[in-house]
Specification:
Elements: H1 2-7, H2 15-26, H3 35-60, H4 83-87, H5 89-93, E1 94-95, E2 99-100, H6 119-135, H7 137-140, H8 143-150, H9 153-156, H10 158-174, H11 180-190, H12 192-198, H13 200-206, H14 208-214, H15 237-252, H16 256-269, H17 274-287, H18 290-303, H19 309-320, H20 324-337, H21 342-355, H22 358-371, H23 376-396, H24 401-411, H25 417-454, H26 458-466, E3 471-474, H27 477-481, E4 489-508, E5 514-520, H28 521-526, E6 533-542, E7 545-551, H29 553-562, E8 565-573, H30 576-588, E9 603-606, H31 621-649
Length: 651
């Protein structure tokens, strides 16, 4: 029959094999991309399913059992209409490949008066079965029961599959504690990995928990075991699994207080879970609780004697407490099962070195270098071991020790400078290339942010921040005339000074905006602005050149009393209103006998307040964040530089 060619399988009466072939072909003939191919595939699938079911029913009947008037359920499990049977009735009577067919059974409704389930009811019933499986912990972790559910026709119905997939994802985003085998079955049925491949960011944003448990390889808690929890009795499994997850996340973020709380809550519910005991051992090691780490290590070894974690934690405690033979025994047990375990090799080498067995210590670190030739710590430790060996041989002066010493010297021989530099640079870049890229990128972002918000480069900004205020001494008229444009603060000594009876007044206009006016003392009194006076205009001379000063009351009184003053102030440009008032003063002073020239400079000295540096724009918060991250990267790079410098200079 051509239907087997379309499905791509040999003729079979196995319904499961037909469904698997159909699912595989659906990836090629999608209804939206290839409607013609999909139609042919669907027809082939329908015919194959009906043929398989008919054969199974015929096989199950005794030979003598009459075949007529047999009740038959016309509802197809794939969701197709009941009329499909009548459509192919004639084909069932005669088949070119199989010869004459049996007389078709008379078709009756299985339940009179009951309509077929609509798609919504089928999807609802499927989700009820999902909730039922998840709600009972033994069935939740049983892949066989999930496989049976996922093999139902409603899952294979292309018209229902997308809607069921969305409902199932929404449910699993809140109920995600499933073994890895079950996640694989779910992904195989609904092809979620295709959604991840198409738009990972969107899937991760909408279903972060599903992604973590089904697809994230680094999410260690998703790989923890469930089977041993069957022996936990009638506990709240969901709460327990949440505590287990929270403890792992807390340790990932080094939040020891939160980790301890979650571990205690989990232990109150069930105290024989190897994964939680392993987390407790890790917590004890990080928090410095040696007794707790040792107890958890022994418990882990008791529960899982074939796993290495318990032995590794216990060897660290033995080594920390100076029990080196016990530590070596545990480490050898690990290396017997995992000869390439880097941590066990390093710890064993360190133990042998402390025990004085330099040959075995050397063997351990050489095995590390055979696995990773760029391990700097192994290189440095081997150099130390060789140096200790040379020292020991020199003390013993045994026969043949000279040859050994010469061989060790060759191993420790001076490498040419350029080669050492090359090797050191290679080690440094290979370990910290990502940090170096981040440092360069952060420098660029910080510099651009500084220029955008302050108009200055970072160096210029910080230089201006730490630079003290430069107050220039002006001792002559030429110094005054040669002041640089940006000179702000000056110190000057004026002679023949006089009070000009002109006031600087601050007033507010109708809109509330503050403006500065310059009025004679009489005019200020007439307008009732004595309380608004902020400065008093005075004039003094420096090498015969007149200089205008706006001072406070104390400075004006000193000028009035002694006719001289030494002061500091800020150089400012003279406003037009002040120039106008000076002209008025010139006219008023014609009877005062003043024969000195008026100020010719366009600048004056504001001495009402002490000179201060120009206020710099404030920096946005993100610049401080960038600087903090940059500092962390620099710390990491400097630590690596320290290691590389040891490697560079050890020989």
């Amino acid at each position: 029959m051509r239907m087997w060619e379309i499905l791509g399988i040999d003729p079979t009466h196995e319904v499961s094999a037909i469904k698997k072939a159909y699912a595989a072909k659906l990836k090629i003939h999608h209804p939206e991309d290839d409607p013609t191919g999909y139609q042919q595939l669907r027809e082939a699938y329908d015919q194959a399913i009906k043929l398989a079911k008919r054969q199974q029913k015929q096989t199950s009947l005794p030979d003598e059992e009459p075949e007529v008037f047999e009740t038959f359920d016309v509802r197809e499990e794939d969701g197709s209409e009941a009329g499909d049977i009548a459509e192919h009735e004639e084909d069932e009577l005669y088949d070119e490949d199989d010869g004459p067919q049996r007389i078709p059974r008379m078709v009756f409704w299985q339940e009179q008066g009951k309509e077929r389930d609509d798609p919504e009811s089928q999807a609802k019933h499927f989700m009820e079965r999902v909730e039922e499986l998840y709600g009972k912990f033994p069935s939740r972790i049983d892949p066989n029961q999930w496989a049976e559910l996922l093999n139902s026709d409603v899952v294979w119905n292309i018209n229902l599959q997308n809607g069921i997939s969305d409902r199932l994802l929404d449910f699993l985003e809140e109920h995600y504690f499933l073994p890895k085998e079950v996640w694989k079955l779910l992904d195989s049925a609904f092809h979620w990995n295709g959604l991840v491949a198409e738009d990972k960011e969107s899937f991760l944003e909408q279903y972060p928990q599903v992604y973590s448990y089904a697809f994230a390889e680094s999410y260690e808690v998703a790989n923890m075991g469930y089977s041993l929890l069957r022996g936990a009795g009638e506990i709240d499994h969901e709460a327990y699994l949440h505590y287990r997850e929270d403890a792992w996340l807390a340790l990932m973020h080094n939040d020891l207080a939160a980790a301890n709380y979650s571990l205690q809550k989990a232990r109150e519910l069930f105290d024989a879970d190897p994964d939680v005991i392993r987390l407790e051992a890790e917590y004890g090691w990080r928090s410095g609780e040696s007794e707790r780490t040792l107890a958890m290590s022994n418990r882990l070894i008791q529960l899982c004697p074939d796993q290495m974690d318990g032995y590794l934690y216990r060897s660290r405690i033995w080594m920390q407490d100076g029990k080196l033979p016990e530590a070596v025994q545990d480490l050898q047990h690990i290396l017997a099962q995992f000869p390439g375990h880097m941590s066990a090799l390093s710890l064993a080498g360190t133990c042998y070195k402390k025990l004085g067995d330099l040959e075995k210590a050397k063997e351990m670190f050489q095995r590390i270098l055979a696995l990773d030739a760029n391990d700097i710590e192994a290189v440095l430790t081997l150099a130390e071991i060789n140096a200790l060996t040379i020292k020991e041989l020199r003390v013993r002066r045994e026969k043949g020790s000279g040859r050994v010493v010469r061989r060790l010297y060759r191993e420790l021989g001076k490498v040419p400078l350029h080669k050492r530099l090359k090797n050191a640079a290679y080690f440094f870049v290979s370990h910290k290339w990502f940090s170096l890229i981040c440092i360069v990128a952060l420098h660029f972002w910080i510099a651009s942010s500084f220029v955008k918000h302050t108009g200055e480069t970072p160096l210029a900004y910080w230089s201006e921040t730490v630079r003290p205020l430069n107050v220039m001494n002006v001792s002559s008229a030429s110094d005054w005339e040669l002041l640089p444009p940006k000179a702000a603060a000056v110190r000057v000594k004026l002679a023949d000074a006089s009070y000009m009876a002109i006031q600087e007044v601050k007033v507010k206009d109708n809109s509330g905006k503050e403006t500065t006016k310059y009025l004679s003392l009489d005019e200020a009194k007439k307008q009732g602005l004595q309380a608004n006076i902020t400065g008093h205009i005075c004039m003094g001379y420096l090498d015969g050149e007149a200089i205008l000063v706006v001072g406070n009351y104390k400075q004006a009184k000193e000028i009035y009393d002694s006719r001289r003053i030494e002061l500091e102030g800020t150089v400012r440009s003279m406003p037009d209103e002040l120039k106008t008032e000076i002209e008025k003063w010139k006219n008023r002073s014609s009877k005062s006998g003043i024969s000195k020239p008026l100020p010719l400079s366009d600048n004056y000295i504001d001495a009402t307040t002490k000179p201060s540096k120009k206020a710099l724009p404030s920096l946005p918060l993100r610049i401080y964040f960038y600087l903090f991250i940059l500092g962390l990267f620099y710390i990491s790079v400097l630590r690596e530089l320290r290691r590389v410098s040891r490697f560079f200079g050890y020989n």
